[in-house]
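User: My collaborator sent over this chain with a note saying "see what the structure looks like." That's all I know about it. Can you take a look?
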Amino acid sequence: MKISTLNSLILIVLAITLLAGCKSEKPQENADVNLTVNQDSKPENQIVLSRAQFESAGMKTGVMQPEKLEEFVRTTGYLSVPQEYRVVISSYLGGYASSTPLLPGDYVKKGQFLINLTNPDIINLQQDYLVSKQKLNYLKSV
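Assistant: Without extra context I'll predict from the sequence alone. Here is the result:
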């Protein structure tokens, strides 16, 4: 049953109940006693309709059938990982993550390639290192 149909059905039942309860007659003592007995005997989470109310609302009975409602369920919230499985990974230098062979939820091992960082500062640092290494070799040879 669609949600809008269900909302309409609830609204109709509520309106019928309110209209049936809004009589200007004085209640009799016997009616109060019967009402109290009925309230005690029926559960609070049920709505009881008479046949006249049921037919005037245009309701029908049928057999319950399993039915697929939605392919996706949209919810809000957050996920949390237990502390024993939480790991922080950091790099000595900053950069942009250009590629990774991993998907969320993949298992990793120690020493496994995780991410490819790109940053022009890394290239400049490598170049400075190679120049300094050559100068050191030259000074050792002299």
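A starting point for your reply to your collaborator: The chain has two domains: 3-56, 83-141.
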